[in-house]
Structures are given as C-alpha cells and as structure tokens.
Amino acid sequence: MSTQTLFREDAYRTECTARVEAVTPGGVILDATVFYPQGGGQPGDTGTLCWDGGEAAVVDTRHGDDGAILHVLAEDSETPGIGTEVKATIDFDRRLRLMRMHTCLHLLSAVLPYPVTGGQVGDGSGRLDFDLPDSPDKTDVERALNELIEADHPVGSRWIDEAELEARPELVKTLSVQPPKGAGRIRLIDIPGVDLQPCGGTHVARTGEIGPVQVRKIEKKGRQNRRVKLQLVATQAG
C-alpha cells in the first residue's frame, strides 16, 4: 500500500486528515501524510496523531514497503485502529529548522563544487563531506554561503525522467547516495543560477529564510575527505 506524500506537494503544510490503513510492528500507515520519512540525510518528522477519543505521539517517521510511510509511535502511546480517521500534525518548528539546514547544505555544495561523499541534516546544524584533498578557508566558505542566503534566491522543484538524469550525470553530486530509481521520474531541487540536483527532501521557498549560518568546523577525515560542519545562528526563522 502506498501513502500519499502531501509533504512533497507543500513542505509548509503542518497537518492533514487521513485514514489508518494498517498498524504494523514498525508503525502506523496512513493513506496520506504530511510527515516526512527519514531519507537523503534528513531525519523523519515528529508530531502527533489525534482521533476521536485518543492521541498518540509520533517519535519518528520512516519508509515502509511498497511506498508506505511508517509513523513510529512512542512506546506508551495509544494506537488507532484500522479505518480510524486521524488528524496528523507535525512538529513544524523542528521541520522548519530541518528545511532551512537542508537547503543550506545545497548552497554549500554550490560554494564548494566538489563530489559529496556524505552528509547529514540536523536540527539546527548539518554537515557535508567532500572529496577534497585540501581544506578550504573557513572564513571564505562562511562569507560565500551567507551571501547566497542573503541574496534570497527562490527555491523550486521539478521532475525529470530517469533517462534525462542518465544523460546528465553531473546533476548527481553525492557519491555515497544515488537518487532512487524505478519510479520513472526523479525530483530535482532547483535554485536557479545556483544549484540543481536530485533531492526528495523538504526545503524552504527562498534562501533568505535560512537566516545567517556559521561554519563551525572544517575537519580532515582522510587523505581526500574534508568535513564541513554548519550551524544556524538563530533557531527561529526570520
């Protein structure tokens, strides 16, 4: 069973009404959801499911089988029955911090145009690892990154088919994670004139929403590997 991914249609949508399709050891499956499942370096959403007479805390969201999305409930939470109509609400403050950092990491990959060997989106912080023999200047990276943020570039998405992606391998910056294939099409995150790459995550609508960021550290993680750690200066957007 496949879950309708409402978060992909509107990353700013905070809640939806849905029906419980299944209850599994891995979590509750809904017919539609605003909860983003862990993937692409971005953590799964947290929040709540509410229904007539009950409420459950969602502590994680993960991919299930065949396009299903699993809402992982807290151990002491009630569990809604199959067929129950629920109101699904995400912790949007946390989601927005993740969105801001995820978009920021796309900008970082534009500032440092080298193959990406790993990465992680965190709540207010994040990192990318680059196939790079020498460490870049921390101050220069931070200045260039904040200039792109302050320019308030629009951030959009569009879809291409898998054949087009195969014809344009330069779009794939990550060496460790390849875009999921088999569905016939691939989603691109497009920051016009700045960055274009496959990504299934949630992002802010404009780079200005990220706010100022700090390059916390640039670490040597091997002969050809440099890790760049970022942090949002302010946890609240705006």
Q: Would you tell me the overall average pLDDT?
A: 92
The CATH architecture name of the largest domain reads: 2-Layer Sandwich
- How many helices does DSSP assign? 4
Spatial shape: globular
Question: Can you walk through the features of this model?
Answer:
The protein is of the alpha+beta class. Helix content is 18%, strand content 39%. It is built from 4 helices and 15 strands. The strands form 4 sheets. The protein has a 6-stranded antiparallel beta barrel with strand order 2-3-7-6-5-8. The chain has a 4-stranded antiparallel beta sheet with strand order 9-10-15-14, with helices on one face. Helix 2 crosses helix 3. The longest helix has 20 residues, at 92-111.
Topology:
Elements: E1 4-5, H1 6-9, E2 15-24, E3 27-30, E4 32-33, E5 47-51, E6 54-63, E7 69-73, E8 85-90, H2 92-111, E9 116-121, E10 125-131, H3 138-150, E11 156-161, H4 162-167, E12 185-191, E13 195-198, E14 213-222, E15 225-232
Parallel strand pairs: 1-4
Antiparallel strand pairs: 2-3, 2-8, 3-7, 5-6, 5-8, 6-7, 9-10, 10-15, 11-12, 12-13, 14-15
